[in-house]
């Protein structure tokens, strides 16, 4: 049987991927930005800000010459005071010749006193500046720092003995004891002296400038003197 050809229709459905809300929002933002920059009414422009540098005017009291004028008298006076240590060493020259080990540890002795007093002065100057400490409580501060110095001196003195006796060639137990005792006394003296000098200079408004070098020089001179006196009493 003949007939017309039969045509079949096939429907193909293509499902587009679903975009989440975040993706749609992101596409919208990109489209908005592209439209904004294509618009003739909006033209992005960059503006530059000019930076100007003006010379800093220092106060007259803070110039180089003013600082030199403030510091030089202190340093000249302290240089003369420090010369006293030379006379002390000359006075005990025979002791040092017989016990050369004393000369080997003089730097450690005076350096330890300087380190201890330096910590005391720095802390005290800071507290005076902030108002935590005043001259009215001088004796309280002195007692507290002396107690701190006593504990530090005992600890450092005990540590110095094996350092000298075990690590220094030719050192006797008596040498180590004399030098360790000197170290102990110097640390205690340095802490107390740091408080006294700092508080004294604070009354004249010179604690920050004068206290560190003054205490350092006095500790050096007194440290050498105490070392020679103590070692002479024990070793001779």
Automatic annotation (TrEMBL):
Transmembrane segments: 137-161, 181-202, 214-235
Domain SLC41A/MgtE integral membrane: 107-227
Gene Ontology terms, MF aspect: monoatomic cation transmembrane transporter activity
Pfam family, one: MgtE
Keyword Glycosyltransferase: no
InterPro entries: SLC41_membr_dom, SLC41_membr_dom_sf
GO CC, one annotated term: membrane
Domain of life where this protein originates: Eukaryota
Keywords of this entry: Magnesium, Membrane, Transmembrane, Transmembrane helix, Transport
Subcellular location: Membrane
Membrane topology: Multi-pass membrane protein
Family per record: Belongs to the SLC41A transporter family.
Protein name: SLC41A/MgtE integral membrane domain-containing protein
């Amino acid at each position: 049987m003949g007939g017309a050809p039969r045509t079949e229709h096939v429907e193909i459905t293509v499902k587009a991927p679903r975009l989440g809300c975040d993706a749609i929002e992101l596409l919208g933002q990109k489209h908005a930005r592209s439209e904004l920059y294509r618009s003739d009414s909006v033209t992005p422009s960059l503006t530059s800000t000019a930076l100007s540098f003006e010379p800093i005017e220092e106060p007259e009291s803070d110039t180089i010459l003013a600082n030199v004028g403030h510091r030089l008298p202190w340093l000249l006076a302290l240089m003369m005071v420090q010369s006293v240590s030379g006379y002390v060493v000359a006075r005990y020259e025979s002791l040092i010749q017989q016990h050369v080990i004393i000369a080997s540890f003089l730097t450690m002795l005076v350096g330890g006193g300087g380190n201890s007093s330096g910590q005391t002065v720095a802390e005290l100057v800071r507290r005076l500046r902030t108002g935590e400490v005043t001259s009215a409580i001088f004796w309280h501060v002195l007692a507290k720092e002396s107690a701190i110095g006593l504990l530090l001196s005992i600890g450092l003195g005990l540590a110095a003995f094996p350092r000298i006796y075990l690590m220094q060639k030719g050192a006797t137990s008596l040498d180590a004891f004399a030098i360790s005792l000197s170290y102990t006394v110097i640390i205690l003296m340095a802490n107390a002296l740091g408080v006294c000098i700092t508080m004294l200079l604070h009354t004249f408004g010179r604690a920050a400038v004068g206290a560190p070098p003054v205490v350092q020089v006095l500790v050096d001179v007194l440290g050498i003197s105490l070392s020679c006196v103590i070692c002479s009493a024990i070793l001779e």
